[in-house]
Predict the 3D structure of the following.
Amino acid sequence: MTKKQFKAESKRLLEMMINSIYTQKEIFLRELISNASDAIDKMYYKALTDETITFDKDGYYIKVVADKEKRSLTITDTGIGMTKEDLETNLGTIAKSGSLAFKTENELKDGHDIIGQFGVGFYSAFMVADEVTVTSKAVSTDEAFKWKSDGADGYTIEPAEKESYGTEIVLKVKENTEEENYDEYLDDYRLKAIIKKYSDFIRYPIKMELTERKLKEGSDNEGEESKEVQTINSMVPIWRKNKNELTLEDYENFYKEKHYGFDKPLKHIHISVDGAVRYNAILYIPENIPFDFYTKEYEKGLELYSNGVLIMNKCADLLPDHFSFVKGMVDSEDLSLNISREILQHDRQLKLIAKNIKSKIKSQLLNLLKDEREKYEQFYQSFGRQLKYGVYTDFGSNKEALQDLLMFYSSTEKKMVTLDEYVSRMADDQKYIYYASGESNERIEKLPQMELVSDKGFEVLYFTEDIDEFAIKMVATYKEKEFKSVSSGDLGLDEDQESKVESEENDHKELFAAMKKVLEDKVKNVRVSKRLKTHPVCLATDGEVTIEMEKILQAMPD
Ligand code: ADP
Ligand code: MG
């Protein structure tokens, strides 16, 4: 039996594909520019092996020109170009990637910069254009050809005139509809913004002719308009530069340019990893709390680049919740992207990167704590709560990772201290790490329960945030020392008081019974306390849950 080929309604297939794989129309420009960049890269590789071609870096660029009257948008490159056959196979066959073939033929392994691989990006042009015309002349040929299609009824190819090699793509931009604005793709400043957003780190210059208004000398409103060719993209990504070539200002400028925040970063972390997983990252700890940080609206995440091309604005999987305040970007060559290049296919690589990033952030925070205490305390003031939240919510590995980053106010030091510092100061006869919960340091200082522990000369940590006690319950022990609330029944101070307590309780049996009757269901019991010194009375709990925790639990919605 002869096997038959599937038939496909290619017109419908194309439409379906284009409109279902891309979430945003503006992506078409990223795709066309990526193709242009690939075409120039191929020139570069060819020049490496072909002596008749010299790669003169200045001759290679990508140009974007919009014409509002003609409703045309033209993207030109000085890359390798396409022969008639190339046009036929690469643009005439959906899901045929000349770039992927090029990589295989030339045995280019990972680490090169060619972006294309799926053979669909080009067709994204039809999201914004009624008609696309590609005029191309391949290097080392004399003829040029013109490929033309309205995206629906197939395409035509005919001979054309073109002086130099390379490719020119002209989009006839769609008319506005009620739902959709297409005029924006003819607006120079909008186009510039799209280029900046997705293609800022394409390695060849992307040029535009922009209208500049220059003021006449001596006048503050009379001006002259002139067109000026500008290179829009920064080209060399800062994260690929050597760390010692970069100044603090470079990092601060990048933070501003990328709109990571309106503040200055408190600290930057530049990571270049070249091992089992390869990536570059520039991360920042902001100086101020983002205005929406402690709200539901806040979205954590890092920008994700694949080979210098922006893939995702906020990749949440790259950051654990307890480091959700970190801003920045990651670039990797090793990501397996899905066909729209917007999301990732499987996330093994991403998971490895995320794990690596997590431990880098942690060690950098520990360094900050060690070397720049003041800055760390500033950081902790803003984001300490997030760390404690991390300890509380994920008792797997977070606890271990984060407990050294915790700080609390100390009764004896009168400043923020770490658990490590506390434990190193503990007296020989001190069994527990003591803490006291309350609304503020002042309130805690006045707690009757504080007296006994303080009188022994023991340090007490002040817990003033809701989360503190819950987090510490998760930590449970630090360097084998248990935590103990000053309000708990057994403080582990003097054991020999037991008999005294008993006799006192017997002596005043009736008084206690009377008190209990008056207080009725407000308290469970009235007892002699071995914890009081100058105060006549205090409240105590006998379970694991302290009064402060109970208050919080009761305030929570069911
Ligand atoms: P991909 O880039 O994933 O390969 P595209 O649909 O974007 O898929 O492009 C299909 C193919 O068309 C490319 O692989 C390349 O061979 C060819 N091509 C597209 N644009 C250009 C260009 N500007 N110059 C040279 N070849 C191009
Ligand atoms: Mg492409």
Q: What stands out?
A: The longest strand covers residues 206-215. Residues 348-371 form the longest helix (24 residues). The radius of gyration is 34 Å. The chain has a mean pLDDT of 87.
